[in-house]
Model the fold of this input.
Amino acid sequence: MFKFEAYHVLLAAMGAAIILAYWLPRFISGREPAASALLIGAGFLAFSWIPGMPAALDPTEVPRPWELVSELCVIVGLFGTGLRIDRLAKRSRWTPTLRLLLVAMPLCIGAVALLGSLTAGMTLAGGILLGAILAPTDPVLAGDVQVGPPLEGGEHPVRYTLTTEAGLNDGLAFPFVHLGIAIATAGGLSLGLVGEWVARDVLYRVAMGIGSGIAVGWLLGRLLFDWPRENALSKTQSGVIALAGVLFAYGVTELLEGYGFIAAFVSGFTLRRSEAHHEFHKRLHDFSESLEHALTAVILVGLGAAIPALWPYFDWSHAMIGLGLVFVVRPLIAWGSLASTTLKTRERIVVAFYGVRGIGSIYYLAYAGHHIELVDEPELWATIAFTILLSTVVHGLTAGLAVERVTGEAQFSPPVEAAA
Done:
């Protein structure tokens, strides 16, 4: 009489897993990032124990779906992160961010590459690729330590630094992904390869990402608030413009061979400068935040579902890489890079430690797996899955409280007037 379709079992199990993952933490802290580890665990349990569930998508066999869904999740998150920032701060306020991006991130990539070589016997290309894959801090999972939504303030230097870092390092890690792929394809490192990489993958693509993001953000500002003045789009109630805007910014930039991740954040940041006090910015942010949380939940459940397929490839060497990054490499290198900035000692400790890993790493590994034949690809996926799970547990359960204590403010402060 009853016919159980695997697809319907999947929908019911995934829905129940997401509801439970967001509901259960309310008994403890009520923090949404605390649900991240539960989403992974729920995916593992659902696909391992519920009868009738279809086989999980193995990222080593079919990386393309993982690449596309995580790509959309990251660009929506980056656009929303750009919209969060109320104030165009002075240069001194940006100094910690620039230190993290230009000093700490390359050093972390090098340290992870060395760690991968020492513990897992990785090649130069594999080590650089792994370091670049693990470099991004997550703009979605790190929401608990970032500045508040538009017009709500709460832009303490710690939150400001973590927000702007998360907004930019996804795109700035891409040159190192390309470097790892180029070395693997060429079979070694050469002066010509480095020169071409610097000219194309660093200088041109970064500049194009920034320039395109500024141009699209400015254009969106005019379309939303100025053209036509008497019937502008900002008078509507539709927040779907946020999705349309980020898709346009990302797509145009990628067509121009720039970094779309950089453009996504910069376009949101630039758009935020248009009519900075307008309530429509909050509507755009709320829509993009809802979309990014939905996509993140699906991806994390999927990651948990893939763990049984990845578990046979996981060993102590991969655990050492994840543990080393979360507890040693990122905290120490970031701490050192923040020396002589305006951040106080406790603030430096918090900023250095809370580099949350997440969806960006999934995208970069899926991207690499789609474009080249990776050596030891299952081992790479096992390392990424473990590191993300570790980060969601360690950072997700403690970040909100730690940042609130060091800043003296809750995640979302009472509304304050925004400044252009």
In short: Residues 334 and 352 are 5 Å apart (CA to CA). The chain has one domain: 61-407. The chain is about 70% helix and 0% strand. The mean pLDDT is 86.
